[in-house]
Predict the structure.
Amino acid sequence: QVQLVESGGGLVQPGGSLRLSCVASGTGSIFGLYRMGWYRQVPGKQRELVGFITHDGRINFADSVTGRFTISRDNSRYTQYLQMNSLNPEDTAVYYCYCEDVDGVNYWGQGTQVTVSS
């Protein structure tokens, strides 16, 4: 069973930075073939895609975070990272790590709260 555990959320001032991490377990050695990414959700709104990184390193981001967020992965550590810079209050949300396996099945982490406020 694939499990994802996020960490790194918290409270940050506008203009600040945070790095989220997501560690996967239960994937076996084919973790490197998985697409990894992040969604976020604000109460009362639909979950929205933040960005993802494919097994071969292609990256895609939502327009709202392009130029401010970066995503990377370390397959040897079964980990992906979301570096968030120039945060603003509109980035406040619960951030969810996800992965898509080779059969197209998605798995989700439990979510980590990011709050941008002065």
User: Anything to note?
Assistant: The first strand starts at residue 3 and ends at 7. The chain has a mean pLDDT of 94. DSSP finds no helices and eleven strands in the chain. The two ends are 40 Å apart (CA to CA).
